[in-house]
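Re: weekly structure request thread

Next one in the queue (172 aa):
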Amino acid sequence: MTDPNPDRNQAPGAKDPGERRLAHPPSDRYRAAEARAAASAAAVAGPDPAASVARGVTLAIIAAIVGSALIVVVGGILTLTSGLIVVAGVTGGAIGLALRWGAAHRLTRRRRIGIALGIALVAMVAGQVGLWQYGLTEGGVLPLFDYLGQVFGPLVPLEIATAGVVAAVAAA
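Done, posted below.
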């Protein structure tokens, strides 16, 4: 008579003769090599020796000037008011990233966010003044705040807030 459960007679933990298990998967040898390579690359690279506060602020100001000019082009020449929010966000992001990359470890996180916020706000205000100046060249006669309020309405504070928030997040 045959036993209906042939595994019952085997010792617990015993394997079938053809079944073998490796102690570790074969890919473990690559993990150790990758970890060593990453550690040596980090040790060699270290902090960026060229990073400085002046470089970070200069790059952020360049991004701010480009963003202000884009505000004038998109809002004044192309008259795309909905695109102004996108330009404000991209400008804020570029300012924050430029400051973070340029200054690297030379600035604390809090100071980097403060500087990025300040530069982004100045850039957006400069862009709005540029829009007003462009409007004056087109025959406009309204003062600055009246022009911005009547032509762009709530977009102006929304642009400033968008640029500030994105700059702060990118600089963090």
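The mean pLDDT is 88. Helices lie at 28-45, 53-77, 83-103, 109-137, 144-151, 155-171.
Next request, please.
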